[in-house]
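Quick illustration, no need to memorize.
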Amino acid sequence: MGVDPVVPRLLEFVRSIGIEVRTRTLEHETFLPGLDIQGGALLVDLDRLAYPGDILHEAGHIAVADKERRMQPVLKPTKAEEMAAAAWSFAAARHLNLPVEVVFHEHGYQDGAEALITAFSNGTGPGLPLLIWFGVTAHPHGQQPGTATQPYPLMDRWLR
C-alpha cells in the first residue's frame, strides 16, 4: 500500500510552523492509529497511519497547548484544547488548500464531521473562541475583539 501523497505535504507544514515531527514505528497503542505526541513532538508511524488528516488534528493539539504543557512528556488535551485543535486543523486544511474532508473524514469526530465543517465554514465552530482568545486568529465577522488581525480561518500565527 504506500504512503498517501498528501502525507509529506502535511508533515512539511507541521515542521514549518515549528513543531518537531519524528517518523518511527510506534509499538504501543495510540488513540489515533499511527500518531502520538511526546515531549512537544508529533510521532508518526507511516505504516499504521489510517487517515492523513489526523496529522493536522494531532499537530493542532500541540499548537494550541501553552508552551509548558506542550513540552510535557505526554500531552493529554483538555476538552477545551480538543475543541481548539478541531478549529485549528480546519484552518490548517484551508491554508493548505486541502478539502476539509481530509481532516474531517467520515471515520472521525463521532459522526459529527459534517456538522463541524458547516460550523467552521460559517465561522461559528467550537474552539474558535479559544483561538481568538489565544491571539492566533481574529473573529471572522469582526466580533470579539482580540490581539490578532487575520480573520479565521486565516491565522496570525500557528502556535499559541
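Residues 79-95 form the longest helix (17 residues).
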